[in-house]
Design a protein that fits this description.
alpha+beta, Nucleotidyltransferase, domain 5, 3 domains, 17 strands, 41% helix
Length: 416
């Protein structure tokens, strides 16, 4: 799969993840009857089924008949969902939500949702039963998303690892055989210097091999790499092009670090905070700069639901730009005279009445769906890349507030 396709798939997965969390946050139970289960990837499914079965048995002691029934129904639904999994959950684990939610008018509706492979691993098994679903750990994962490679080295030792969100994970280390600066008796200064340079070169190659083994398989997910250590070590390492060329291109910066053991990885993160903060938004800023430049200098830009959708169907959109904070549905209306129109409505709001703009006749609702799903489906069919834009900078806010959260960079002028 291409890099762009992988990034688009990851962006879509994050969007779907956020959307489910927003949905779950809205739900309330009339009592402590909403069940949440966090399952780490190393927990056997059979053990989880046994735990759920035990909870189902203990729920028989709940005094309220309605709460007892709802909790047991939720646990039965969870057991049914677990049948779809083999010995272990997917990578990073999963979270299952089930319960009877208030649906208005004194009525309840049983729902069950499963979130697989969250951004960070589920760290421990957790069973939670309350009037709300437990989503805070997942919200922290979303807030802390991001994957950065870390390399610290001097001529004695090196450590490599990950920065996942705000969590540092040391992974590999190495010690060098580089001799000290003082030569032993019997060796000429030239020979000693040559042997020492060879040992340094061999050690740099070993460090690069460690980093390549760890990071090359994840190169399409990497947001960047930080390199730390004393001068001139880190400079020699980077200037010598020891790293795989795709990793070399991901280096965000090099930083002076006093320690190169595991603690140095934490020092490197502290030293690189400015670079990390800038990198999170750099691609979004580039996309919006190009959009505004195209908007001001020509017609190779589009915005708003109608024009963007029309350009997507024509296949003229190179990149679809969607705000991360879009919370709207698209409603498809059709009037008696066969005119079809599209309108956005805030998610979870009632669908408003609509008059056809062409003939003035009342139009009926034909379909309603998430506007992001609607536009991305068209984009996928036309080979258009989709980019989600943060609102954490000025032009990202403008996309949401001034352009309705929907825009596109065109391949060519269309006049639409």
């Amino acid at each position: 799969m291409s890099t762009d396709a992988e990034e688009a798939s990851e962006d879509r997965r994050k969007y779907e993840f956020r959307k489910v969390l927003e949905e779950l946050e809205e739900y309330e139970g009339s009592g402590t009857q909403l069940v949440t289960i966090y399952i780490p990837e190393d927990r056997q499914v059979s053990d989880v089924v046994a735990h759920v079965t035990q909870e189902h048995s203990e729920a028989a002691n709940i005094k309220s008949k309605q709460t007892r029934t709802n909790v047991q129904d939720a646990l039965t639904s969870i057991k049914d969902r677990l049948r779809y999994y083999d010995t272990y959950p997917p990578e990073n684990g999963m979270v299952i939500f089930s319960g009877a939610i208030d649906s208005g008018g004194g009525q309840t509706e049983m729902i069950t949702r499963t979130l697989e492979s969250p951004p960070d691993p589920v760290e421990s098994f957790r069973y939670h039963c309350d009037s709300d679903f437990l989503i805070e750990p997942l919200e922290h994962m979303m807030a802390d998303s991001g994957l950065f490679g870390l390399i610290v080295l001097d001529r004695r030792e090196a450590n490599v690892g990950w920065l996942k969100g705000k969590r540092v994970e040391p992974v590999k280390s190495a010690s060098s055989l580089v001799p000290g600066k003082q030569r032993k008796g019997g060796q000429s200064a030239q020979r000693f210097a040559r042997l020492r340079l060879e040992a340094i070169d061999n050690f740099y190659q070993e460090v690069a091999e460690m980093a390549d083994d760890l990071m090359v398989p994840k190169r399409h997910e990497l947001d960047g790499i930080l390199v730390g250590g004393p001068s001139p070590t880190k400079d020699e390492f980077l200037d010598g092009d020891y790293l795989h060329h795709e990793l070399q291109d991901k280096v965000l910066g090099k930083f002076d670090i006093a320690y190169t053991d595991e603690s140095g990885l934490y020092d490197l993160v502290d030293a690189g905070q400015a670079a990390l903060a800038d990198q999170e938004l750099v691609e979004d800023k580039e996309q919006m700069e190009e959009f505004f430049e195209n908007l001001h200098t020509g017609n190779e830009a589009t915005y708003g639901l109608g024009p963007t959708r029309e350009n997507l169907i024509m296949g003229s959109v190179d990149r679809l730009l969607l705000s991360e904070d879009l919370t709207e549905d698209v409603v498809v209306y059709e009037c008696p005279n066969g005119h079809t129109e599209y309108e956005t409505v805030e998610r979870r709001h009632n669908t408003p009445d609509h008059e056809c703009s062409e003939c003035g006749e009342p139009a009926e609702v034909q379909e309603r769906e998430d506007v992001v799903d609607h536009l991305m489906e068209i984009a996928d069919q036309r080979g258009t890349e989709t980019k989600f834009i943060s609102t954490d900078f000025e032009k990202g806010e403008q996309l949401l507030n001034a352009f309705g959260g929907i825009a596109g960079i065109l391949r060519y002028e269309t006049g639409v």
